[in-house]
Fold this sequence. Notes:
This protein is of the alpha/beta class. It contains 17 helices and ten strands. The strands form two sheets. An eight-stranded parallel beta sheet has the order 1-2-5-6-7-8-9-10.
Amino acid sequence: MHTIEELRMLVQKHPLIDQHAYRVPSLDLTKELSEEQADLMMGKSSKVATLATQRALHQLQELYGEPCDTWDDVHTARSRCLTDNYIEFFQRCLQGTHMLLLTDVDLVLGEVVLQDWPDQFTTSDSKKIVCIETVAEEVLQKLMNEQRQANTSVLNQFRTRFIDAINDFMNDAAVVAFQTDICYRSGLDVDPYSPDDDTMTAALHRILDMGNRRCGYCVTEKPILDWMVVQIMKLNSSGRSSSKTKPLQFSTALADDPSRVADFETRPVSANPVLLEPLLQKYFSEVVLLNAGYPYTREACLIANRHRAVHLDLGGIFPAVSRDGQERVLREVFETMPNSRLLWSTHGNHHPESFWLANKQFRQALERVLVDYVACGDLSLLQAKELAVDILFRNANRLYSLKQMSDYEI
C-alpha cells in the first residue's frame, strides 16, 4: 500500500542523474572566485533583489549552518566553509547525486581532459558533454597557428577538421552528448540546408577578421553555426542503424550564465524552440531542449509532441525563477509533455552551492505538484512515484545509454 509520505520521501531522497552541469572546480579555483564571480555563477547579483534571489539567500542559511541576512553574510559563511572542510562541504552540495554529465570541459582535440575529482562525491563516475562551438574555436585557433596546406582553402580545412574532431568524440566513451549555444549566438532558426561555399567563406573570413592567433576566435556567424549544427544532426541521423548517436542539447532562452549571453547580440524571439521545426522535420536526431524552453515552455512541449526524438530538460529555472514560477513551469510541462522525455539537471556551475540550491528547489517543487495531482485524482500514488523516478533517473539513464542501476525501492 503506497502512502503520501512515501511519495514525499521518494521525491526528496531518490538518487538523481544530473544531465547537464558545468565543470566542478578544485578547492584552489573555488577560493580564487571573487564575490562578483560567485554571484554571477549562482545566477544573481547582490545589487539586484528578486523573490528568487531572496529565497536563495534564506535557504543558504541551512547549507552554511548559520544566519545569513545579506549577501555579505553569505560570502563570510562561504569562506568559513571552504576553510574548515571543503571536501565535506562539497559532499553536502552533491548529496543525492548519482552521476554528473558535465559540459564546459577542457578540450584537447580528439579527447576530453577528464576532471574526475568530483567523482568521489557521486555513486558513478561523471560523463562529458562537448560544446560544438568550443570544438570549432579550438579547430580554428590550431589551424591558424600552423602552416597552411597548399592548394587547400581555409574553409575546406576547417570543415574537414571539425568533422574529424566530432567523429573522434562520437567514438569517445567518456562523451555522451553534444551541446550547442547557437541560441545565444545567432538564434534557433537554424537553416537545415547547407549554405554555398561563397557564403561560408565570407562568414569564416569575418570570424577570422574579428579574432587573432593569440586570443583565439569566436564563432558567431550564422552560416557557420547553422552548418555545424546540421553536421551533428546528419551524423546522428545516419548513425541510427548502428546506434552510433549522441544527443544534441540546445540551450534555450534562459541562460545558465548571463555573461555568455552578454557577449552576443540575439533577439529574444530567436530563442523560441518553435524555430527548430524545419530542422527537426528534415533530420531525425535525439535532441534535448535545455532550460525548460523558458519562457517558451509550452512552445517547447509543442515541438516535443510533434517530434518523438525531442526531450525537455527541466533545469535552469532552479533557482533562477521564483517558487511560483517554478511550479507553474512544471504544471505547464505536465499539460502535454510525454513523461518519458522529461529530464532533470541542476545546470550547476563552478559554485558548489548552485548544485545544492537547484536540487533542493526542484525536489520541493516536484513534491508539491505531484502531491497535488494525487490529491486531485489526476495520478495514483504509484503513478506519481514512477513519474518522479523517470524524471530524476530513468529517462536520462536510457537516453544517454548510461547503464546505471538504483537500489532505491519504490
